[in-house]
Design a protein that fits this description.
Elements (H helix, E strand, L loop, with lengths): L1 E12 L6 E12 L3 E5 L6 H8 L7 E6 L2 E2 L5 H11 E5 L10 H13 L5 H10 L15 H13 L5 E5 L7 H17 L3 E5 L3 H5 L3 E6 L2 E2 L7
Parallel strand pairs: 3-8, 3-9, 6-7, 7-8
Antiparallel strand pairs: 1-2, 1-4, 4-5, 9-10
Helix pairs in contact: 3-5, 5-6
């Protein structure tokens, strides 16, 4: 089942005469359950593309369709609700709330969006799957970097999103913890049929994904998309 369709998206920054084209006519499709690496040199447009797919920015032109909804045409409030319910984010700096314990950090997106209804059995399953159940009452400052990244991953999966967007999720981790987090991402991909787009500079990590999207100078390189 197709979960994401990106059609001719371009993104320009700046005013006339002083514009920067961050993305130029990028198109690709993603099936549910695919684990895709997005690679390219620094400044090539990788993070811009992730931000557009995640609804954190809007394209200058083109369409981004997630679960049959064209998010590039949504109003700001509609987009905020759609994003909370359909898109999970994992960044390299974890972005955890220091005043909340592990369990409350993970439940936060659900409570924020759906009031009092929280699927506690699912959250417990996630925590056990990620080896965090015995740490559920700890605070972020009491955890290692790898543990904090696991909490961030669990929080991103708490809403059962259509797509998980990971921007250099292992960028701050040592090699052993990087292997561990990649294993957890791959496992969530299989177990929950989770679709993942991961920006990475690490070629060996990219090689372990189902498919590689290679972006240079804001364009998707021909022959590397594979859809």
């Amino acid at each position: 089942m197709e979960v994401l369709q990106v059609t001719n998206i371009s993104k320009q920054y700046g005013e006339k005469g002083n514009t920067v084209e961050a993305l130029k006519n990028v198109s690709f499709r993603v099936e549910q359950g695919e684990f895709i690496a997005v690679v390219g040199t620094s400044g090539s447009g990788k993070s811009t593309m992730l931000n557009l797919i995640g609804g954190l920015d809007t394209p200058t032109q083109g369409a981004i369709i997630i679960r049959k909804r064209n998010i590039s045409g949504l109003k700001r409030k509609e987009l905020a609700v759609f994003r909370r319910r359909n898109i999970g984010f994992v960044f390299q700096n974890y972005s955890l709330m220091p005043v909340l314990n592990v369990y409350d950090n993970i439940a936060l997106p659900v409570t924020f969006d759906k009031g009092k209804y929280v699927d506690h059995p699912y959250l417990e399953e996630l925590l056990r799957e990620l080896g965090l159940w015995d740490k559920r009452k700890r605070f972020p400052s009491e955890l290692s970097g790898g543990q904090q990244q696991r909490v961030a991953l669990a929080r991103a999966l708490a809403n059962k999103p259509a797509i998980l967007l990971a921007d250099e999720p292992t960028g701050n981790l040592d090699s052993r913890t990087t292997v561990e987090v990649m294993g957890l991402l791959k496992n969530s991909c299989r177990k929950y049929s989770q679709t993942i787009l991961m920006v990475t500079h690490n070629e060996s990590l990219a090689a372990n994904c189902d498919r590689i999207l290679h972006i240079e100078d804001g364009m998707l390189l021909a022959g590397r998309e594979g859809a």
